[in-house]
Amino acid sequence: MFAIVDVETTGGYSDNHRVIEVGIAISDGTQITERFNALVNPGRTIPAHITQLTGISNADIEGAPPFSEIAAKVYDLLQGQVFVAHNVNFDFTFIKRELEEVGYTWNAKKLCTVRLSRKIFPGLKSYSLGNLASHFQIVNPNPHRALADAETAADILHLLLKEDETEVNSQLNKNRGTSQLPIHLDANVFHSLPETPGVYYMKSEKGENLYIGKAINIKQRISQHFTGSSGEKRRQRWLREIHDIKYIETGSEGLALLHEDHEIRHYWPPYNAAQKHPVAKWGIVSYKDRKGVPRLAVQRAEKRIDILEHFYSFTSAQQFLGELVRELELHPKLSGLGWDSDVEIELHTERLNAWLDQRKKESEVNGYLKFDGPDASVGYVLIENGGYSGIGTVSLGIEKWTLSLLKENLWHYHESPTARQILNALLRDHPLHSFDIE
Question: In this protein, which residues make up the domain named GIY-YIG (predicted)?
Fold first, then answer.
């Protein structure tokens, strides 16, 4: 049995809005066997544009029950049924949120009549409920009212089942997150994604990059974006804008991390917020006081080039500094920390200078890190004078790794606080190889 549902709401996002009308049509797959319709008092004012769209005014819901009073009936109607709606995630998210608000735990298998219509009746100009009703000559007596829209969606479901019941059952039985996919994304695009490391690009209808991410398993990571029932406004808007997904396989997480950072900074997608601001806002610096004693301190890092270590926050920088002081047995007060010790200034100076000398040697290192590459290739990160010089791939079986070979096969080069942090982490975990200079 199917429960075809439509809700009218105070707005488009369940995190901030409430249901004002519920319409449910119970169907056996060929005909409607039961109907339910109720206005709901949302406990807030209905915006004027919603009244203009639906015809439901504040006067209409003044004497209507709150959702809590109809929750038991809604729950009983939906329990054990396949939840069907036109753009199913919208209605499902609102109903689930309303039921949870009054203590009901509920979930259901879902079917989307938009997605099914695209699959079974391809090539139509539009798949909105109104346009599908017009195309199939279904009369909707009261558009944008819950029960009328639910009944219209039920009629469309009946046509879909009659035309290709196998496809409907296939979509229903796929336990692969299809019903969670963005409404405009072809399910075949999702199902054909590789389960390998790489960088993925979520695209708009015009092919513009909306979001760029990296993954050890591209398909699994993208699936995680689409799971859950959050009705947060920005997320719901983003999901509605996704029409396609492209990807580049990198063969390893190390290359994916650096390639992602480059691509985000190259395209600046609107839904990648983190890298639009300096990531490493704080850093450790070294300086000499008036007596020539070397000191350490935590300072703002954005516009400084003498930063020894970069950090996301002041607290993490302070924690690193505390650990360094204990490890090297430095004088805390000469290292920007608040406690005293019996470490002599001469010993502090000797130990800190030795550490700074070692850091200088590390900053002059040259070589490359090797990783698995995509297909039959080897990936690498090129390092010159201790700095990041780009990523690339070469064919398997290369016997002589020369600097010119590595530079010729670079994918790109860029510098950023994030790239420096990634490189430092990779250097700690992977052996450095030397290249021949020709």
Answer: 195-273
Burial (CB count <10 Å: 0-12, 13-18, 19+), residue 215: buried
In the set 17, 86, 135, 144, the catalytic residue is 144
Question: Comparing 2-180 with 187-272, is the CATH topology the same?
Answer: no
pLDDT score for 437: 66
Res. 276: pLDDT tops 70: no
Predicted TM-score (pTM) of the model is 0.54
Domain ranges of the chain: 2-180, 187-272, 282-363, 367-429
Q: Which long-range contacts (CB under 8 A, 24 or more apart) does 327-335 make?
A: 328/352, 328/355, 330/296, 334/293, 334/294, 334/295, 334/296, 335/295, 335/296, 335/297
Which of 279, 203, 275 shows the shortest CA–CA distance to 241?
Answer: 203
CATH 3.40.1440.10 for domain 187-272: yes
Q: Nearest to residue 372, comparing CAs of 217, 255, 229, 216?
A: 255
Q: What is the chain's mean pLDDT, rounded? A: 88
What is the average per-residue pLDDT within 290-308? 83
Q: Is 144 a catalytic residue?
A: yes
On whether the 2-180 domain is CATH 3.30.420.10, my answer is: yes
User: What CA–CA distance (Å, rounded) separates 16 from 276?
Assistant: 27
